[in-house]
Structures are given as structure tokens and as C-alpha cells.
Specification:
Layout lengths: L1 H5 L1 H12 L2 E2 H5 L6 H13 L3 E6 L2 E6 L5 H10 L12 H27 L1
């Protein structure tokens, strides 16, 4: 798969196909290379599982195969450092809010109880 992604034309084809499926003729119109050369690039991308071709009459429409990118995502995930656990100071504002709410409820409850006793 990485060999398929190594070529800038193939990477560009993937970006184009990520937007919408396209025919070889439409893809070739965007490049200064021949239609057979674009077909070869598409075959390499298809063999890598990154693109799939769907027959529509006499034409083949190529589209991105998102599942083919899973190995790449998995590999890149191994390179990312693990996310740290939530730091203790992140809970400070939550603790403050819980204490404030508790005080307000206690004050409301004691005011309500005082009114009942005087009535």
C-alpha cells in the first residue's frame, strides 16, 4: 500500500476520488499524461485496495475504497503517543461546581424548612 501512495499522481488521484467517483477519461483530462498511464496508476491503487472500479455499461467508474485506508490509519495510530489520562487539575472546576451547587441546595432547603416552621 505504501508503494501505491509513494507516487504523487496516485495520491492526487486518491484525493480526487475521495470527492466523487470518476471515469478514467475524466481523471486523465486533469493530467498531462496519457489515459493508459492513468489506467496503470488506477490499477496499482486497485491492487493496493485503495480504489475500486464499478462497471457502468462500457465504462468503469473508479471510487475510493475507504476500507483500504484502514491499514494506513492503524499504522499511523501506532506512531501517535498514547493519550495521557485526564490530569487531576481538569477536575478542579468540576469539584468547585459540585460544591457550589451543594451549598445552594442546602441554603434553599434550609430557607424552605425555616418558612415551614414559622408558619
Amino acid at each position: 500500500m505504501f508503494e501505491a501512495l509513494a507516487d504523487p499522481v496516485r495520491r492526487d488521484l486518491l484525493e480526487r476520488l475521495a470527492g466523487a467517483p470518476a471515469r478514467v477519461v475524466d481523471l486523465a483530462a486533469d493530467y498531462p499524461i496519457s489515459r493508459p498511464a492513468i489506467s496503470k496508476h488506477l490499477r496499482i491503487l486497485t491492487d493496493a485496495g485503495l480504489v475500486c472500479a464499478e462497471p457502468h455499461g462500457r465504462e468503469r467508474h473508479y471510487r475510493l475504497a475507504p476500507a483500504g485506508l484502514t491499514p494506513l490509519h492503524d499504522y499511523l495510530d501506532t506512531l501517535r503517543p498514547p493519550r495521557p489520562p485526564i490530569p487531576e487539575h481538569a477536575f478542579d472546576s468540576l469539584d468547585l461546581e459540585v460544591r457550589r451547587t451543594t451549598r445552594e441546595r442546602q441554603a434553599t432547603t434550609s430557607t424552605h424548612t425555616d418558612k415551614e416552621q414559622t408558619a
